[in-house]
Model the fold of this input.
Amino acid sequence: MITKPTLILDKKKCSANINTMLSKSKRHNLEFRPHFKTHQSLEIGSWFKDVGVKKITVSSVSMAEYFSTQWNDITIAFPTNILEIEPINELAKKITLNLCIENEESISFLSEHLKFKVNIFLKMDVGYHRTGINPENSDLIKIILEKIDANPLLNFIGFLGHAGHTYKCRTNQAIKKEHSKSLTIMAELKDEYKSRYPNLIISLGDTPSCSVADDFSGVDEIRPGNFVFYDLTQNLIGSNSIAQIAVALACPIVALHKDRSEIVVYGGGVHFSKDRLEDKEGLVFGRVVEKGNNTWGDLIPNTYVKSLSQEHGTISVPKGNMDNYKIGDYLMVLPVHSCMAGNTMKSYTTFEGEIISRL
Amino acid sequence: MITKPTLILDKKKCSANINTMLSKSKRHNLEFRPHFKTHQSLEIGSWFKDVGVKKITVSSVSMAEYFSTQWNDITIAFPTNILEIEPINELAKKITLNLCIENEESISFLSEHLKFKVNIFLKMDVGYHRTGINPENSDLIKIILEKIDANPLLNFIGFLGHAGHTYKCRTNQAIKKEHSKSLTIMAELKDEYKSRYPNLIISLGDTPSCSVADDFSGVDEIRPGNFVFYDLTQNLIGSNSIAQIAVALACPIVALHKDRSEIVVYGGGVHFSKDRLEDKEGLVFGRVVEKGNNTWGDLIPNTYVKSLSQEHGTISVPKGNMDNYKIGDYLMVLPVHSCMAGNTMKSYTTFEGEIISRL
Done:
């Protein structure tokens, strides 16, 4: 029974999302190395194990530590933080650890302080311009590869990219266009380095590209993460339908203000996070869906979270619909960003009544 | 030693903030009932106890449960969530519990289901228009007061307001103007109801008003919360100087991109939250300060968090300053919203090396 904000996970939708992405990777002959930063749960991770997934991606050393109790091949898709050399060595001792390098300082440091073997991806900037090596900077690539080759504990395994700029796309066509640029960049790198490193792999993996693209030429591995739950942002980008979104926040109704056609729910920034999207209704922090029997239904038109404070969410409701709601009932709200809502909520509750913990 | 994002608490600044607000409340003969939603820590709460504070405010039943082990007079400054009647009864059994009512349905429900005595504040809308009773709606006030008076477990203790709209102010004058409107609304209510309820109190309490105002005529109690740490948002509003901000996030530097004059730190939305402010530099998610010896110094001009993803923070740095930074060092960053950063970080680390836990 709902008494306070509760992040509900629809296991069927989640499993369907996992299976769809798995089938796609098989169809394109891709290694499926899902990013676990969205769910951050050993339990949900086990659902991937159940369908044969053996390798995973995370975005911090802490996450790698958490998952290393059950997974023995983990990529940390984040520029290596040399301040964490101690836990990196602990991990390298017990699992196959794949690190990302994008500058000379980090590889020099690793070369001096690493005690166990790790695999190294060169993190390439495929256009997002957040991190990564400029693909045209062959001098830097050369310097890093020389340092890797000079140390038997360092093993170069390939080039890794993250097309985070697809999050700015609003059509499938736009996503495919950005993805195609990533493919070109990666293909050129593969061509240039494959004679020297015949086993090098190309790893790509944002959820929009992996959901929408149908060309993965030259790609060896994909690392999508958000697809496990999807959310309103991914829907706006064009990655998924509303029906595929696998998490919703149940929020008790604590106030009704008919004069301004607003509902106030117990459910604020500490539950949803403050992630937002902007569309025709202005700023949106979540959208209300119809409640269903052990699931939820369609979006209720024009019924959305218009603002959030710490514990309060203010819901805009079309005039005339206010009588559908009452104090002591609760709303089901799809989040703008499921990764962040998971992070603030810290657990998932299934319709079967199971409480699934996470990091 | 900093190895990953760490929320550093400067105990001296924090204690000074507590003492300043305490002195102000004494000077104005106000009951000081600080809001604990910002720090949410028993340990930091004990610093208030040390200076004689006996009553507190929280914003959820969960927070009241957490603090009820050490505090026996707690106001839940949030519209009563009737779905939590069970823990409300548990709390009412053991402490002086003050609830907020802003609609008829909730008071009817309490009247039927309450098993122990509680105090009731009428939550008034003093202009924020998030929740609360319209002060002109004397019919609703009458109905609620009748229900309260008819049940010996319900005790009306006064009117409570939260001028959250002061967060839109950008000058002390503007804050004082909004505060003065709250005073007028509350004075009229006090005048109207004091013959019937001679002990009724007026409770106000946003951090901007409490920090800036010098007129508290008719007010009996203040409930500021954020002042314990302050932050960049409060600084923008005009509540505090930069030097008063008592928390900063230490973030390891993991990438330097001189071509675009950007640093990438390990420190993202899961650490800062995604709260933002907008000023002359555009969107800002945090500002970098000089590091000091067991404290931090001034803002480093034009050096700020320009974007956040889940674990990454991108710092904009003036051209020419990039050589001041190196991989493996860390930055100290003041948060935009300390309540939210505390909520995502879940603990505070002092310069004395103490780790302070929280809810």
Remarks:
- Chain A touches chain B through 55 residues (CB under 8 Å).
- The two ends of chain A are 24 Å apart (CA to CA).
- Residues 242-357 of chain A form a domain with the Lyase, Ornithine Decarboxylase; Chain A, domain 1 fold (CATH 2.40.37.20).
